[in-house]
Amino acid sequence: MAHDHDHDDPHEHGSELSEMQLRVRALETVLAEKGYIDPAALDLIVEEFETRIGPHNGARVVAKAWADPAFKHALIEDATKAVRSLGLINRVGDHLIAVENTPKLHNVIVCTLCSCYPWEVLGLPPVWYKAAPYRSRAVNDPRGVLADFGLKLPADTQIRVWDSTAETRFIVLPMRPQGTEGWSEEKLATLVTRDCMIGTGLPRNSAEAA
Fold first, then answer.
1. Nearest CA to 201 among 148, 136, 125?
2. Of 94, 90, 96, whose CA–CA distance to 76 is shortest?
3. Residue 34, CA distances (Å) to 39, 78, 206 in order
4. 46 falls in which pLDDT band (50, 70, 90)?
5. Which of 1, 34, 80, 191 has CB 3.0 to 4.6 Å from 204, enough for a Cys bridge?
6. CATH among 3.30.200.20, 3.30.70.120, 3.90.330.10, 3.40.190.10 for 10-209
7. Alpha carbon of 78 to those of 55, 91, 152, 176: distances in Å?
8. Are the C-beta atoms of 136 and 112 separated by less than 8 Å?
9. pLDDT at 103
10. b/e per residue, 74-112, with b = 16+ CB within 10 A?
11. With contact defined as beta carbons under 8 Å apart, do 80 and 96 qualify?
12. What's CA 164's distance to the chain center, in Å?
């Protein structure tokens, strides 16, 4: 899959990440000293987007797909359109594709050249997603990578790796946990984790939710 990584966000470029982080921190310090920004407020905004807004949106999408066959079909057909129908607007302008896990197929998302990522439905990308070892090993040794995350799949389960680009990004639709029949979408959403939507983990089971 071809890459065209002309991003507006310099944080996306893995080779410049460390230098750019230093520049951003220096800029934040200057702006804070001049009274233009409140560092505490900035931290809260980042934390909100990383831990609540993004992953919460993705959990809504997955839970609705589990509970509503019509929405699931729409999500697989055109995830961008299906997600937009829930009022989740993609400001990056990329094309979102949902890939479904089955008992015989497990999907994993990676961006081999930088860190393309569907922020609106997954929040901020975790540090390991941007790291070179994950970006390379996820392609060359996906089963080993998943084992490192504590996810050991049956030998006959095929692992398919999807390479994100600036235009096309992915969300994994994990399998619905057993024992959740009759659950509301809100309750189902509590089982959905960021990692299961990347493919490096599984949803929580019903016992864990209880």
1. 148
2. 96
3. 12, 46, 50
4. low
5. 191
6. 3.90.330.10
7. 20, 17, 30, 20
8. yes
9. 96
10. bbeeebbebbeeeebebebebebbbbebeeeebbbbbbb
11. yes
12. 11
pLDDT at 141: 96
Strands 158-163 and 168-173: unpaired
Q: Name the residue ranges covered by the structural domains of the chain.
A: 10-209
Reported as a single tens digit per residue, the pLDDT across 116-168 is 888 888 888 888 999 999 999 999 999 999 999 999 999 999 999 999 988 89
Distance CA 116, CA 129 (A): 9
Q: Is the pLDDT of residue 34 over 80?
A: no
Read off the amino acid at residue 189. Answer: A
Residue 80 phi, psi dihedral angles, 5° rounding = -60, -50
Cite the active site residues: 111, 114-116
CA distance 72 to 145: 28
What is the predicted pLDDT for the residue at 121? 87
